[in-house]
Design a protein that fits this description.
14% of the residues are buried. The chain is built from five helices and six strands, in the order αββααααββββ. The protein is of the alpha+beta class. The chain has a four-stranded antiparallel β-sheet with strand order 3-4-5-6, covered by helices on one side.
Length: 210
């Protein structure tokens, strides 16, 4: 009888250990499954689909720090494009300048007002001048915040009889702000100034009458 009780007790101990082992295994498997599911959800959230021309194109999200240099250079490029790409049309000038001023602080507005007071934009309209800019390179220093940048560009003033080519160098700093439709990169240019704006050459266009 005692032997039977001992056997029952031993069997009970085995069942108890097996049950504990089974419970621990279930907890581990459940924990792994939850962790894996959470990781898959996070991974799936990084997939972005953009609708373009009726087609869904897959894009991938990334941390802002991974794209600061790229976005910063594009922000500076777009600012210079809007500020310096002008046609002899007051509406075009106003639209482009407003787009540029959304990307910078009061230093850009002050430069605009100084040019306006000097009659620069009136001269563009009256002389039928088109102004274009091509950004050659942009340097952004990410070692310190706000981020210092320097922009090197070629500026063209196109008249009916000649084209003036200028070398333009500007500098300033990039500060983080909230993204918006008017400022998609989430940067604001501050302490912007022109370091160099000198004529390189003038090309005269003469056309023989037919």
């Amino acid at each position: 009888m005692f032997k039977q009780l001992k056997n029952i007790d031993t069997a009970f101990q085995h069942i108890k250990r097996f049950s504990l082992f089974l419970i621990a295994a279930c907890v581990l498997v459940s924990g792994f499954a939850i962790w894996k599911s959470f990781a898959m959800v996070q991974s799936s959230q990084k997939h972005i689909y953009i609708l373009a021309n009726g087609k869904a194109l897959e894009a991938f999200s990334a941390e802002r720090k991974d794209n600061v240099a790229v976005e910063g250079r594009d922000h500076v490029k777009m600012f210079h494009h809007w500020f310096f790409t002008l046609d002899p049309d007051q509406k075009v000038i106003n639209t482009h300048i407003n787009n540029a001023l959304n990307l910078a602080d009061e230093t850009a507005r002050k430069s605009y007002e100084n040019l306006k007071e000097a009659g620069y934009y009136n001269n563009i309209i009256s002389a039928n001048i088109s102004q274009e800019i091509e950004v050659d390179s942009i340097q952004v220093d990410l070692a310190n915040y706000p981020y210092y940048f320097r922009c090197f560009a070629t500026q063209k003033l196109i008249r009916s009889s000649s084209t003036v080519v200028r070398k333009l160098v500007t500098q300033g700093y990039l500060r983080n702000v909230s993204r918006s439709d008017n400022n998609p990169h989430g940067f604001l240019i501050q302490k912007w100034e022109t370091v160099m704006n000198t004529d390189l050459n003038t090309k005269t266009d003469f056309h023989e009458p037919i």
